[in-house]
Amino acid sequence: MRLKHYLNLLMGRTSALNPARLDLKHIWAVIQSSLRSILPTPTHVKEQILWREQKVKEKSPECWSSGACVQCGCIIKEKIKADMGCENEPYCYPEMMGKKKWNQTKTNEYFNQGSTGEV
Asked: In this structure, what DSSP letter does residue 96 have?
């Protein structure tokens, strides 16, 4: 399924508004997300993947429900696992953060939510 999806994306057979380009950055993102699906992943990366999922659901629910980004056409569950941040409006999530910056962001979001929500 994924291979067929990416081939259609490359051939321009997509309804995406701003289809992803075929370059090393995007190829690495696909490889990285695949590796993170099968290999052990550090806790701070796992937490960010879950956080990114929530951000997509909040900022762009149509992407989540369709399974692919309406802007670039990438498979959304794979896209949130790569280091790349969201490149199109509404910029659902930033680039993957290092452990120290993630712990800072996580703490700030927790306190900004009034200590009631999950980060």
From this structure: P
